[in-house]
Structures are given as structure tokens and as C-alpha cells.
Design brief:
By secondary structure, the chain is of the alpha+beta class. 47% of the residues lie in helices and 17% in strands. The strands form five sheets. Strands 1, 2, 3, 4, 5 and 6 form a six-stranded antiparallel sheet that branches. A four-stranded mixed sheet has the order 15-14-13-16, with helices on both faces. A three-stranded mixed sheet has the order 7-8-9, with no helix packed on it.
Length: 601
């Protein structure tokens, strides 16, 4: 049995041979209270791993780091060959000592292991999600359509009759046929036979008159995740798979579900088939369970958030359809805003939604319907918004003219509240009703702020609202809360990235709402340096991932998730990466200050 614990990062990325090599050179050392292990002026030739006890990192008399069981120190000093800080034992400690020479040899042979010590920020952050322990199965992130065993399509001519189609399906043992009618390609399925019976369609009717010729398709090299989203969004059971524009297979719901064990598509179907709010509440309760499963299997936060966004959109749409009469559905637009609109919310959080109503549509009874909708979402697990940004608040159910006037007020009288409301609205996405009502509102906003440099500067200035919790000596700055040293991930890291990118995208006329998509668009336009863009994307992904892990732990303990984390609960690697992520945030804020000339205000 190994005396060294290889179950935690970065050591879990070593091969069996590499583990043997490392174990052969590892020593165990004991230090008493107040012993100095490393310090300024002393050569650094060892990486230390805590077996038991506590070690403090000191900058002068200030404690800037605390290391406990399984923590490592100090990789940065090891590479530099020296340290400016002192590492002092607080409680007698038993440590593994890994010689520098052997560690450097391993980092040269194992790139993933080496990435933890000296790769670029974006590579280090990305490497965290690639640990072998997180890849027990191929995930939605990496699997492609071609990885699934596709059903070979059976193609018939458009002149094929219903009776011939039924016979072909029986003999070929398939549930769908591709219909070639001249240049048109369509599909006819067993489900379509239901309409034949209902409408009494003659059996000699050709499929050219009955097939669905607006096909939903997916490329064979596309991610299976995208196919899953397409099925979920359009409530369909199969997609035509294409290769170089030609149909090569049929991907069905059953194929996807047999590949993945999470049954996310089944949740979407439960939402779609729900007949009342009770059934919707049951389906909504499965979403957090799905998050836990997928997160445990290594699905990255951005992909997980987009899947949750799709499910939430279907859930909100069905609830609205159950509560609102048809006339209101056709003459209004239900929108979600903030992180929900951006597709960056994973666990259920406060409601951020609004309703835009067509000018002239009578509003009798709408208040009661909106109250019922907000109540339904609260029942589904989405608590009321503390700031009242929800349909039950009259300020967030407006007709077109009122919404346009509100936008004008936000832009021409931009106090702090107005700018906050505007920031939330910029991220809005339509989930039900007439989406053109939201599109028109966005066009009004773009016209109001066109070429207004002063506005963009005022809008971007919110990045200065919160300090980044990273000190002069790269220590994490915490505060006391409930007896723990904590920091706020959203205020300190997530918000500056999200809002800074939102400001740049708004100025550039970029219509994407998702932060990662905005970063990509800014980079492609030459408005953001590529390396910084990559670092920001990885930093945001890491911060959201840490927030998700803390949120899932809170739910497990019966607590409501929030934005606070206790750094001491993280591993050494996670704390180091957290420092790297905050360093990226600081670099970004500096760039934004220069770009928007925030020093002038």
C-alpha cells in the first residue's frame, strides 16, 4: 500500500509509473511549533505536502496563507528558487518532502501535472476540470453525435403512399422515413399516423402532402450537447444527422437517453406534458438533482448553465401558458433577465423577470395573473426577488410605450438604481409570447446610447463598486461571517468580469447576452486581446464552478446557497487558482479603467 496519498490534485494526474517514481524519493519530516520551514534568503529545493498539523505563510507579521492536511507549498517559490515569505509551523506538523529535481522531472514528463505549477493562467484553470477522477464517462461537453450509434435512415420517394409507408416501416423496423420529394427532404414518423386516423386521411395519399419538410438537423461532428439542446428547445424526439450536407442518419431521443444517464430530456418532456402547476413543480424539483449528477460527472459550468437555462425557459413558458389567456400570450412578451437571461445561472436563485405588453391591449386582470406567476415560480424553488424585479411588481410589467420611456429614463437620468436596472435589462431574453416586443425595446436602447461615450463610462463604472479580494502579496482578503473567514465570489470576481464584458459588448453593438459569447465576439472584432479574453473565460468558468460546488454543499447541509466561500475549505490548488483568477480580474479592471477613462469621473 502506498504511503503517499495520490488521490488529490495535482498528484491524481500522475500515471502508476510516475507515482512509483515520486514515492521512491519522498521523505517525511516532522516540525515542532514555531519552526520555520522556509524563509527569505534560504534556498528553496523542496515541495512540501501537509500530512497533519498547520503551517502559516507570513509576510512580515501578517498571516497571508494557512496550510492544512493535503495542502502543498510553495510551488511558486520552488520554481523561482527563493521565497519572500516565511512558512512557520502553527501546530506541530508532519510533512511530505518532495525534492525539487524529481518534481521538475515529473512536470516535464506529465504536461497536465506540470500545468498546475507553471502553465499560463488559462491553462491552469482549464486543467482543474480535466482531472481523471472527473471523467468517469464521456460527458456532454466532449461527446459528439458520431459517438452515438446512429440509426441508418430509410429513404422513400415523395410519391410513396401512406399504406406503402406503413408497410415499409414494418418491414424495415423503423419509426421514421426520410421523404425525398424533388429537391425537398422531409420526414414522416409513426407519430404522424395519429393525425391520419384523426383526420380520416385516405391511405393512398402521397407522403409529399404529409411529410414535415422543415427538418431539424444536426451535423455528425457537432457536440451531442447541442443536439440535446435542440431537442429540448423544440420538443422533438428525433433529428436528421447530416455529413457535408447529406443525411446520414437519424438521432432519436432514445439514442441520446441510452448514451447519457441523466435523463435531462425526460425533464423537458415532463415540463412539456404537464397539465397543471403541481406537475410542473415536480419537474422543477428534478433540475437541481440533474445539476448535481452532471456536475459530479465533470460537465463544465458554462455548458451546465446553458442546459439549465433551456430547461428553466421551458418551465417558465409552460407556467405562463397555464396562467395567461391566449390573447395575453399573443400580445405580450415574458422575459428573464440578469444571470438567467445570460444563461449563467445554475442553481435556483431570485426571480429576475418582466412582462412587456403590446400598446393598446387591455390590462384588466393582468395583475392577478402576474401575481399567480410569481407565486408559482416561488413554489418551484425560485424565491421572490429582494429588489422586486418580477412580474408581481407593477414596475416590471409595462406596455411598449412605458418600457421605452423607462429605457429613456435609465439612459438620460442614470443614477445608480437606473444603471443597475439597465444592466439587468441588457441581458434580457424572451421566453414566451411575442419576442419582437423585446427586440423593439432593445433597438430603442441602442438608439438612445449610440455614440455616447459618457454614458458607457458611467455604465462601466460599476466595476469599481467592489474591491477584488486579493492583497499586495497575493493573499486572499477575507472578512468574518458566522465565525468563518469568507470572501464574496460574485462581488470580488464574477461581477467585474460579467459587467465589464457587458459594457464593452453594449458599446460595440454586440447582441449576444452570454458572457463567454460576448468575450468571443469582442475578440473576433479585435476589441479585446486574445490572451486576456481566454484568461477571462477560464477565470469566469472557474469562479462559477467554485460557487456551484459551495452551493451544492450548502444545499446538502440544508442551507440556502449564497456567494460566500471560505477559502480554507478549498485545496491548496484551488486557492492558488482562485488567486490566479482574481489576478485576471484585477488586470481586466485596469484595462477597463483605461478603455472607458474611468479616472476622469
Amino acid at each position: 500500500m502506498s504511503r503517499f496519498d495520490f488521490s488529490h490534485p495535482p498528484f491524481d494526474s500522475l500515471t502508476a509509473c510516475e507515482q512509483q517514481s515520486l514515492e521512491a524519493c519522498v521523505d517525511i519530516a516532522f516540525f515542532a511549533d514555531d519552526d520555520e520551514i522556509m524563509g527569505p534568503g534560504k534556498p528553496v529545493d523542496t515541495l512540501w505536502v501537509v500530512i497533519k498539523g498547520i503551517v502559516r505563510e507570513m509576510a512580515g507579521e501578517e498571516v497571508i496563507g494557512v496550510y492544512r492536511e493535503r495542502d502543498t507549498f510553495d510551488a511558486r517559490a520552488l520554481i523561482a528558487g527563493e521565497t519572500q515569505n516565511r512558512f512557520v509551523v502553527h501546530e506541530e506538523a508532519l510533512l511530505y518532502a518532495i525534492p525539487r529535481a524529481q518534481l521538475m522531472e515529473l512536470t516535464g514528463r506529465n504536461l497536465r501535472f506540470g500545468a498546475y505549477f507553471y502553465a499560463s493562467v488559462s491553462h491552469k484553470l482549464a486543467a482543474l476540470s480535466e482531472r481523471p477522477g472527473q471523467r468517469e464517462l464521456q460527458t456532454l461537453l466532449t461527446a459528439r453525435v458520431r459517438d452515438v450509434r446512429l440509426r441508418e435512415p430509410v429513404k422513400v420517394d415523395g410519391s410513396t403512399t401512406l399504406q406503402q409507408a406503413a408497410e415499409t416501416m414494418k418491414t424495415q423496423r423503423v419509426k421514421s422515413l426520410l421523404v425525398q420529394d424533388g429537391t425537398r427532404l422531409g420526414i414522416y414518423t409513426t407519430t404522424d399516423f395519429r393525425d391520419v386516423i384523426i383526420h380520416g386521411t385516405p391511405y393512398h395519399t402521397p407522403l409529399s402532402e404529409l411529410g414535415q419538410f422543415q427538418l431539424m438537423s444536426v451535423d455528425i461532428d457537432d457536440f451531442l450537447f447541442n443536439a440535446l439542446l435542440t431537442m429540448t428547445r423544440n420538443n422533438i424526439r428525433r433529428l436528421v444527422v447530416t455529413a457535408e450536407g447529406q443525411a446520414v442518419g437519424i438521432l432519436s431521443q432514445v439514442d441520446v437517453l441510452s448514451y447519457f444517464s441523466n435523463h435531462s430530456h425526460l425533464i423537458a418532456q415532463r415540463i412539456e406534458r404537464a397539465q397543471n402547476l403541481d406537475e410542473l413543480a415536480d419537474a422543477a424539483g428534478q433540475i437541481t438533482r440533474l445539476v448535481r449528477i452532471l456536475s459530479g460527472h465533470g460537465v463544465k459550468p458554462p455548458q451546465l448553465a446553458r442546459l439549465v437555462q433551456t430547461l428553466n425557459a421551458r418551465l417558465f413558458e409552460r407556467a405562463w401558458q397555464m396562467l395567461a389567456p391566449t390573447a395575453l400570450l399573443e400580445n405580450s412578451c415574458l422575459i428573464v433577465m440578469g444571470s438567467e437571461g445570460r444563461g449563467e445561472q445554475i442553481l435556483k436563485t431570485d426571480q429576475d423577470n418582466a412582462l412587456i405588453i403590446r400598446d393598446g391591449f387591455p390590462q384588466d386582470g393582468i395583475a392577478e395573473i402576474c401575481d399567480a406567476f410569481s407565486g408559482a415560480l416561488a413554489r418551484f424553488g425560485y424565491p421572490p426577488c429582494a429588489g422586486g424585479i418580477m412580474l408581481s411588481n407593477p414596475a416590471w410589467r409595462l406596455d411598449q410605450s412605458e418600457m421605452q420611456a423607462r429605457i429613456q429614463q435609465w439612459t438620460f437620468q442614470p443614477d445608480s438604481a437606473a444603471l443597475m436596472n439597465l444592466a439587468i435589462f441588457v441581458d434580457a431574453e424572451a421566453v414566451a409570447g411575442d419576442a419582437s416586443l423585446l427586440k423593439t425595446a432593445h433597438e430603442v436602447l441602442q438608439q438612445a446610447i449610440a455614440d455616447d461615450a459618457a454614458f458607457y463610462a458611467r455604465f462601466a463604472r460599476a466595476i469599481e463598486q467592489f474591491d477584488t479580494p486579493l492583497g499586495l502579496f497575493a493573499q486572499l482578503l477575507t472578512r468574518e461571517a458566522d465565525g468563518e473567514a469568507v470572501l464574496d465570489l460574485k462581488k470580488g470576481g464574477i461581477f467585474p468580469i460579467v459587467h465589464g464584458t457587458r459594457a464593452l459588448a453594449l458599446e460595440a453593438g454586440i447582441h449576444e447576452t452570454n458572457t463567454l459569447e460576448r468575450l468571443s465576439a469582442l475578440t473576433s472584432k479585435g476589441l479585446l486581446e486574445q490572451e486576456l479574453s481566454h484568461d477571462l473565460a477560464e477565470a469566469l468558468t472557474f469562479l462559477i464552478g467554485i460557487k456551484l460546488s459551495a452551493g451544492l454543499d450548502a444545499l446538502e447541509e440544508g442551507r440556502q446557497p449564497d456567494n460566500l466561500i471560505a477559502p480554507y475549505r478549498l485545496s491548496t490548488l484551488e486557492r492558488d487558482l482562485l488567486k490566479d483568477a482574481f489576478a485576471v480580474v484585477k488586470r481586466y479592471k485596469s484595462m477597463l479603467r483605461h478603455h472607458f477613462k474611468l479616472g476622469s469621473f
